[in-house]
Amino acid sequence: MPILQACAHRLDKRSDEQPATLTPGEAMTDTAMAESLLATFTSSFHGKPKAWGHFREADAQPGDVASGNETEDADDGNPETPSTTSRFAFELERYRRGEINFTDFTRQTTESLVPLIDGHLSIGGHWWFVHSRQGEAEYLTLTLLHQRDGYGFDADLNVVPVQQLNLGQLMLAARIDLTQWQRGQSRQYITYVQDRGNKKLVEAFREWLGCQEGVNAGAETRTLLKAFSDYVESEDLPEDASREKTEALIDYANGQAKRGEPITLDELSELVDETQPKAFYDYIRNQDYGLAAEIPPDKRTLQQFKRFAGRASGVSISFDSHLLGNSIEYDDERDRLIIKQVPGQLKDQIKQRKG
Q1: Which of 113, 147, 252, 314 is deepest in the core (most CB within 10 A)?
Q2: Which long-range contacts (CB under 8 A, 24 or more apart) does 259-264 make?
């Protein structure tokens, strides 16, 4: 992932009572080590709970021309956040138009981040910006990196204290697909860490970005899994075939989540049925589940999706876990399993036997 631009600024904060101070940096001239750091950060970032969104409609959009008042404010060296946009989105658009360089863009937006740090965090860190390219797409990564104390050996093999970046602690981090943003065809080009233990911090960060949630990854993933289960039932597939297709879906979805990529319905449909690569895709469209062509995978939802299975006294039963409580119920007192929607193939066999 070649780095086009990178810049870090230090935010020092000694305690809750003391305000954060900013020590600005300059754009990096040597990005060799930064590329290694970015790769490690990206791996950690993809493993965190995340949300997806887009800039608010009122925010600066690629190609928009700022109003006269906004231009005057920006040119006087002390730009104020326009009432119709976030400071971050406004400055990002200026950078993309070539009106300011990368160092100024990152410094000005970091200055506007100081109140957020003061209001929600007791420690500071290094606020790192990276403009990179992956294939034909360009990305902007931004994150607050904290340091932690550790130990190491010096040249004389003595144990010495060292500091290192704590990439496992990512409270503030986002990745913006600049290419999707410019094309204007997506509402999930901003991905940001969603720390469920600090909702106020997440909300403040999202507000600072000027971002609004574009898609609920958990809900979308649940809908996709429901559509898959309905499809398997409609096909009256044997148990082995059903299990094989379920494993293919989960493996693909988990792989996409690990890479930080969306689930693409076209690709998934081909994996589900290689002989009829469009069958699952067409089924979703015909049943109108309201799913987009690309879905951000939610790892927690995927982990909960499994099949219950059991065999006893000549009876073999298996079903997707999310069906429990819906089309399948378990009566604990009577030890009964109630199936509300009997598979058509099984129903036909029973009717033939009774006849």
Answers
A1: 113
A2: 259/46, 260/42, 260/45, 260/46, 260/175, 260/191, 262/188, 262/294, 262/295, 262/296, 262/297, 263/221, 263/224, 263/294, 263/295, 263/296, 263/297, 264/293, 264/294
